[in-house]
Amino acid sequence: MTSPNPSRPDCAVTQVTRVRAGAIAPDVEADHVAEETPVALEFNGISHATMLATPADLEDFALGFALSEGIIDSVSDLRGIDVLPQCDGIVVQLEISSACEARLKNRRRAMAGRTGCGLCGVETLPEVLRPVEPVANGQPVRIQALLAAMRDMRARQTLHDITGATHAAGWADADGAVALVREDVGRHNALDKLVGALARQAVRAGNGIVLVSSRASFEMVQKTAAAGVGVLAAVSAPTALAIRLAHDANITLAGFVRNDDATLYSHPERIIT
User: Fold this and answer.
1) Which positions are catalytic?
2) Structural domains of the chain in order of their starting residue, each with its CATH number
3) How far apart are CA 253 and CA 243, in angstroms?
4) What does the pLDDT look like over 2-37, one tens digit per residue?
């Protein structure tokens, strides 16, 4: 059984039995595990998506999701956010502009009766593979700044250090100084939280670097483009579809960013020595 952690709603405490060097320890120990909670997103009373997420930074998560999924165009389209805990999860209610609400309703009417792919409320292939605006050319980024930023983000993954179960997404400026880090059990959720945090804090993110502690999928490139950031650095590999989108979106995609190594898959001219 697990019990809540009063000081950290993003993790719980459980009892475990350790096995070390092939031997079972005689005593149980307390250990921390990441929380995973159903989070439902509603826009002007319209239920749109329910996802499993870590229950922290949910305002950032909801705003980032709305921006990266094209439900709203900017923070000015958001009128308010309410986070409402329920007995079986959390409902996040967003009030958005009437124009964005009408667009969302039209999208949902167009989806009615069609076979779905099950991606976050998106039910047609054109919605999944929607085009993105190419990001503007920002200032070049030194390779040592990119490598240092990834190391710094890893040092700031406090929930991962406690539980070993979460991904992180961070933003660093062009000099490699990490300004924001968000964590979640889901890599997409962590990046949505980061996109929302950048928007809520009005960070001029275009000249910086998005860092993710995971592979770089197509959706991760989409979300980076929605934030207007020209460099995405991932600890692990990208997919072929992610590389194609990064080329089209004018995003420098770096994979296998570990220690002093990296592989540049698109627009390497943005990275300098």
Assistant:
1) 117
2) 2-34 (no CATH), 37-128 (3.10.20.10), 141-272 (3.40.140.10)
3) 7
4) 888 888 989 999 999 999 999 999 999 999 999 999
